[in-house]
Design a protein that fits this description.
Chain lengths: ~180, ~180
């Protein structure tokens, strides 16, 4: 951030009074601009023992497979965000189950949350998807999964084997 | 947002190409500015069957009790954020347990996450706290809890009675 979104003046980067962290501060209008981690929400949609994955049509990781997931938007709940992303990427409706994985991706300033879900009806390729397909657990293309958080979610989904073992937590190491 | 944080020009609010939502867009430098929900992280620190609460010294809800919680910062994990908030608000170190509650506060554009935790050593009142104190479960001041998400977390914490029942999910209704 270089300019104040509120008044358009140049911002300076300093630790505000009563704070302990560097922030972008506007000395003209006095506003402190906080930057916080973003939420990515997704789900693992299952149908008769098979899992729905999407081959990405966009960068990063074009051509790699992912579970339906994306940035949570204002105005929706975590579960609604995961359902919307599934609709957008896989043209699919799901019955959302419980939250089962949380992954800190500190370097990217993100936390990724994954729900278990049950596929309802058909599916297809959304605008950001080259192809959507159902995989048996033994056929998951582990070496072609787009993101480490998705790999973690899929591993835990397979390990859970339908049981509810609470939320599996993970942290993506720096540089990966 | 009125001005572009990147170049200082006035932004316009419209649906960008390939998007389906209104965004603040800069027609000069082309940047699209996304606004996303923020994460609040906290914990319920327990010590010999009693729960550590903080009486807020700041608005909103000055004088009301809360579990230690606050906005997650860049550069930390969910659990690290909850530990930092506990250090800041209650001058306390905790051993972080598992994530047990998630609350969508859609109107505020926030998601609140709560961990179970075990208090290690002493505690006190941080700068934003008037007083920190341990409460037996039967003495929790339910009518003086600052926020509905904290009330939900405390209720589920008490109901769980030490068991791990996964993540309890809740949505704060509009207008509350």
């Amino acid at each position: 951030m270089k300019y104040c979104p509120n008044c358009g003046s140049k911002v300076t980067c300093r630790v505000p009074d009563g704070d302990s962290r560097m922030r972008c501060v506007c000395d003209d209008c006095g506003q402190v601009h906080y930057e916080n981690p973003k939420i990515v929400v997704g789900c693992v949609p299952e149908h008769e023992g098979r899992i729905l994955l999407c081959k990405r049509a966009i960068e990063p990781r074009r051509g790699y497979w992912t579970v339906p997931a994306g940035f949570m938007e204002l105005g929706e709940s975590l579960a609604e965000g995961a359902a919307r992303e599934t609709r957008e990427e896989a043209c699919a409706e799901v019955q959302m189950g419980h939250l089962f994985a949380s992954v800190d991706v500190i370097e990217a300033g993100q936390v990724h949350f994954f729900f278990k879900a049950r596929l309802i009806g058909g599916f297809g390729a959304g605008e950001e998807t080259l192809e959507a397909a159902l995989f048996r657990k033994e056929d998951i293309p582990w070496r072609e999964i787009a993101f480490l958080s998705g790999t973690f979610a899929l591993q835990k989904f397979v390990e859970d084997a339908g049981e509810d073992n609470g939320v599996h937590m993970h942290r993506v190491p720096h540089g990966e």
